[in-house]
Amino acid sequence: MFSLGDVPVICNQLWPDAKAAQAAPAGDVDLVRCGTCAMIWNAAFDPGRMVYAPGYENALHFSPRFQEFAERLAAGLVARHGLAGKHIVEIGCGDGHMLDLMAQNGVATATGFDPSMQGKPSPFTGRKGVSIVPEYFRSDQLNRPFDAILCRHVLEHLDTPMALIRDIRTAIGPRNVPVYFEVPNAGWMLDAVSMWDVIYEHVGYWTAPAITTLFRRAGFQPQTVNAGYADQFLMVEALAADPAPDFVADGTATTAASADAFAAAANAELDKWRARLGRMTGRAVIWGAGSKGITFANALGPDAAAPLAALVDLNPRKHGLYAPGVALPVVAPDALAEMRPDLVLISNAAYEAEIRAKVAALGLSPEFDVIAG
User: Fold this and answer.
1) Which whole number is the average pLDDT over 176-192?
2) What is the pTM assigned to this prediction?
3) HSE-CB for 287 with a 13 A CA cutoff
4) What single DSSP character describes residue 145?
């Protein structure tokens, strides 16, 4: 379906210096799709290479737009499912930002699991009832009280996702416990031809039909499967039901057609950017030191990437570090006042308005272009 070679194994692991970044582990992506349910995955993925250690950083909540999204999400989940005074568990909680938001909205306890938090403090665990267990989640950890389970941007990292969903279903038993799952929306990726969302650490690429099929087969009935956050996320709210092992969701044929067309469109997009930056004589920066920006910079190749001077990010935990592979430094927005780039490449259109406003506030007037979206 689509291949991309020599990409960083862990895109969101930044490095202390350029030499270490250049030597970061790399691997190949070979996307294929299921002929039945149109699920898309990386056939070249090796789970043994994935180690989510301290230094892994993919928090989005430094963006005002994302903060607004997350705050609405937490308030909505508590209200819709009557979770005030209840106990929630989050699998893959990162620094606990969502745990804290759920507690602000009235849950009694919010417990998260994330191995990347080993030895790291979090500003989001100071609220009573909020805690992070810095370990990989295991199904036996659901021996504690829980009234809802959240799992955001984890499922795409798992090479055996059905096992997790079935374990959760077994732990819920006959109870009416809601689950909320959130993943990158591969349907948006295909339609927007955002090859920059193809990263090694994502083994699975979930469309609405594929994730609906997964949940129904595992014993959940999705109440809603919605696209959100500029259609870039898939958001699933589900309740326990009888498993339907042969279920296939509607819409798989449309997904299959989009997937089959993706490779040609993505390669044409890459050729366009290589030609444009290969002709450039000034200096460019990429705003967004996350998956899209880092994948874009690495995919260009050394000639086309030559004008790139840095990656810009609001997250202060990334500043002074280097992106894997391409080894570009990550700088704070204020650094642009001295760098004075000729071109600012916006890695995600969802943040375009706030980026343009911050650049204008620095007294700069570079050219802008959007990489994805």
Assistant:
1) 96
2) 0.89
3) 28
4) -
